[in-house]
Amino acid sequence: MQSDLERQVFHAVADLLNLEVDLLYFDTTSSYFEVDPSETPEEESLRKQGFSKDKRPDLVQIVIGLAVTREGVPIRAWVWPGNTMDMTVIKQVKHDLIGWKLGRVINVMDRGFSSEENLRTLQQAGGHYIVGEKMRSGKASIEEALSRRGRYQQVQENLHIKEITVGDGEARQRYVLVYNPSEAKRQRKEREKLLESLKEELEGLRQLPNEAHHKATCRLRSHPSYGKYLRQLKDGTLRIDKQTVRDAEKYDGKYLIRTSDDTLSAEDVALGYKQLVDIEQAFRTLKSTLELRPMYHRLEDRIRAHVLLSWLALLLVRIVEIRTHESWPKVRDECERLMLGHFSSKNGDLYQRTELTTKQAQLFAALGLDPPPKILGIHPRT
Fold first, then answer.
1. What sections of the sequence does the record tag as coiled-coil (predicted)?
2. How many CB atoms lie within 10 A of CB 246?
């Protein structure tokens, strides 16, 4: 029933907004439950501990998937157990959208989904993909792509691109290397600040007695930020690894995109991937504006219904934003200024709304809605 509802809602919205689904963005997030994991029965199928994108690994959670058009319209939502890994869901997503008559679709996804098996799945039935690649994965094709010389082409402010093809024939792989000078500057400054702090830590080590020195050394080596920039000499002394610093500098402001579609220009590939920010905004709206959590449900049907209703609410928000060209908070705040007055006298009671502002009238017109009647009720006293 849920899949039929989602399909019917999508086609209704596609007609309403005259949507053409050519790029389809997909990503996942997690949402936790306000319950101690010890209180969750082992036989539960959904509420599980797993990798938390909310930084709450101490709680059970579910994983939510969302498919969004280039206009930011969410066309489908999925719910999986909280211990589901991103790499494992693509086959189901592809299968669930069969029969939706989406036409020629290019799936856009981030680095968490770029396994070779997933990419083959996305190319079935004539589909294509634009995906981010992990630049430090060690894959030979990625190392070759990153080592290629050539000039960047500037397509937007802080968006420089370089197209790279690795291999020949059916084995050829098309990449677009993107460079953002502003982001490179930010990352460089952050690293310089971290290294200055690390130098102070290393200087402080010299002042410590043996046992305290040993504990501090272990702490620095295991530190999530400092550790990767350290090397230990044979005598146990810690030094900043200058080669690691030089290697890190090579990646500043860069990200690598791979695509299976040869008809798209390198600029379209880069700009299409950049729009992944829309689905991140959709998740933020779900969790904050629409208050997806906290969730206290226990039964699977109620959990799925909670996410389904939140998806429908997100869909309505995006329709309002597209039709009005205003953000949802602005539309909501303006409409909340519309008040209902209750006037009472010895002759009876009158319920009358306030006069529409110019902005309120524009919003109702853009949405094709009639405003509430000016007089909502007259109740004479007998």
1. none
2. 9
Predicted local confidence at residue 196, as pLDDT: 95
Sheet of strand 348-353, all strands in order from the earlier edge strand to the far edge = 340-345, 348-353, 375-380
**The pLDDT value given to residue 19:** 65
pTM tops 0.85? no
Domains and CATH numbers, the chain: 2-179+253-324 (3.90.350.10), 182-249 (no CATH), 335-380 (no CATH)
Asked whether the predicted pLDDT for residue 47 surpasses 80, the reply is yes
Looking from the CA of 28 toward its CB, the CA atoms found within 13 Å total 26
Tokens of 110: 């981030």
pLDDT in tens, 185-220: 999 999 999 999 999 999 988 888 888 888 888 999
The b-or-e profile of 262-286 (16+ CB within 10 A means b, else e) is eebebebbbbbbbbbebbeebbebb
Q: What is the pLDDT of residue 5?
A: 75
